[in-house]
Amino acid sequence: MIQYPKLTISDRLNQQRERLPLADLQETFKESWTVNETWQVTFAITDSLAYEQAIQLLDVQNIVHYDGQSYVIAQCTKTVSNGLSVYEVTASHLFYRLANNVRQNNVKTGTLTYGLTDAVNFMLANNDQGLTAKFIGDFPRIQIENLGNSSFSKFLQDYISKFDASYIIDNQQITFYSATYLKQQPVIDTLFYQHDVENVKLSLDTTSLVNEVHCLGKPIDQGSGTNDSQTKYQVDFTYRDDDSVKKWGLQRGDPLSDERFTDQGSMTEYARQTVQAQPIATLTTTAWDVIIRQCETVKLIMPNLDWQTTVALNGYERNPFNQFSLPTITFDNASLAVNDINVAMFKHITNAHDNVGKTINQFQAALDELQDGDLITDDDTIDKLNELGEIS
After folding, report:
1. For the range 233-237, what are the long-range contacts, defined as Cβ-Cβ under 8 Å and sequence gap of 24 or more?
2. E strands within 179-259?
3. Distance (Å, rounded) from C-alpha 231 to C-alpha 271?
4. pLDDT in the model for residue 288
């Protein structure tokens, strides 16, 4: 028996809760998630007397309860056509509304260096929305000017990428994972092209490409007796990835500051691992029977190209109410060797071309054996066809 996720709708105060028609959900429901950006559900419900009370709850700011999470209806459109009323609903995860309501009105004046834990705890201090945070892994320290006087939602938009972090939300709790931690996790699932996944698409994005940055390590304490107001650092240099510059052109980024470093060699290695010196390669595919876990790392194998890579789940769209609707999953790996798949594809095309050439040559040789004017018997024809059938 197929087990569907539980989905109900309630008023904003959760005083009334009703079920929605499964048939409509099977046709129109879609859950969409993109790491560090969005998590929402959409669906369309046709007006009917059997679900009259549930349909009356289809209104903005009411709550959709789905698979253990809560979503706030942000948009609800009613369309009347041929005597039928259809309600189209878009609901975003409750966390986003709460994060926007959490505001830190205090300000830490000046340009200071923060770890992610310190910055988040300051932004969430004494919040009245019940938001809590967990931190897993080691995060870089960054400089922030005048932290505060903004919402927690704005803080996430501005700084989460600078801390090189990904987060997963569970109703009112947010859990941050460092990029290093996620990369070090063991691969649980292996996906095979044309077995687990289909229609693999590779796209490249150079929007965030950076191959030259100014690196600043630990500040030097100059004391109060100096008139030099300019801050000096124990490590102060420019990091440049020459291979990336040669291939993609010069792309300068914002300064990379981290007070942990007092040695240029160590910070050079840190810069090499931190800057996005290659295009982001994104793999999108449809999945057959795959358990989707947010931020999971999987191994993708394409036997026909003799190619494999390790990629992290970056987003998905799915309808768990329809077993015949295949989910679309997006994998993202900033360090994916772009040339690997290009080389594999070129090798595959070259081999195919060689096989075609071999077949044509063998076919021509077989024809040459047939002299003009020769009488071809049935046995002759069968022999020639058998020879051609053995060509690979």
Report:
1. 234/261, 234/262, 235/261, 235/262, 235/263, 235/264, 235/267, 237/264, 237/267, 237/268
2. 189-192, 197-205, 212-216, 236-240, 256-257
3. 21
4. 60
User: Residue 247 class from Cβ within 10 Å (0-12 exposed, 13-18 middle, 19+ buried)?
Assistant: middle
In contact, 358 and 313? CB cutoff 8 Å: no
CB 218 within 8 A of CB 262: yes
Under 8 Å between Cβ of 232 and 223: no
CA 312 to chain CA mean position, Å = 7
Contacts of 19 (CB under 8 A, 6+ apart): 7, 8, 9, 51, 54
Which tokens sit at 244?
Answer: 């990336």
Dmax over Cα atoms in the chain, in whole Å? Answer: 110
Q: Who's near 232: CB < 8 A, 6+ residues apart? A: 219, 220, 222
pTM of the model as a whole: 0.70
Q: What is the pLDDT of residues 23-43, one digit of tens each?
A: 999 999 999 999 999 999 999
The residue type of 81 is: S
Alpha-helical segments (H) within the chain: 22-28, 52-56, 94-101, 116-124, 152-159, 179-184, 242-248, 264-274, 338-368, 378-389
